[in-house]
Amino acid sequence: MSNEVVLLNFWPSMFGLRVRIALAEKGINHEYKEEDLLNLNKSSLLLQMNPIHKKIPVLIHNGKPVCESLIVVQYIDEVWNDKSPLLPSDPYQRAQARFWGDYIDKKMQSGGWKTWRLKGEEQEVAKTEFIETLKVLEAELGDKPYFGGENFGYVDVALVPFYCWFHVYETFGKFSIDAECPKLMAWAKRCIQKESVSNSLPSQQKVYDFALQVKKRLDKE
Known about the structure:
This protein is of the alpha+beta class. It has eleven helices and four strands, in the order βαβαββααααααααα. The chain has two domains: 75 residues, Glutaredoxin (3-Layer(aba) Sandwich), CATH 3.40.30.10; 130 residues, Glutathione S-transferase Yfyf (Class Pi), Chain A, domain 2. The protein is globular, with a radius of gyration of 17 Å.
């Protein structure tokens, strides 16, 4: 079977970073195509491959697109199932992993965004809610090395890309994730030791510089 793999992505996207980490975990060679989403210049290929949402990431496997980051990660795990499984083999544990992936999708991006875009009382409320989300995740992690236990897996892939945004949240929100959720930070630093993660994530400073650009642009609107 031919295995032509192309990833359409935008480098600071935590959703695209999930796919990059999953591909790295599986050792899958692929072509990377960067989209210029800062300037809203969506390529014709992106519009063709994801005509419904017109968003990254899109994984194109043998000419066929797969969209939505968690669905893409699940697809990668199913197709390349002979290498480093991400989802548990047990159906119940697999369902639980998907539940937490969904929780992360519904809570983390919008919650994190509000910590650095809102101001005053609204920001304080957003910050409290975001820290609570982190504490829920920390409680689920418990004393395990990774969310699935001893091995890096699906929930880790879903969450760890947000680590490169932590400096943005903390700086603008004026709080410390390490002080609020030390076990979660220890988990993040453990994940960063993995090459699939460290080679995929941009630096926190680079993401912060990007956020400053976005903030200046949005503040002018």
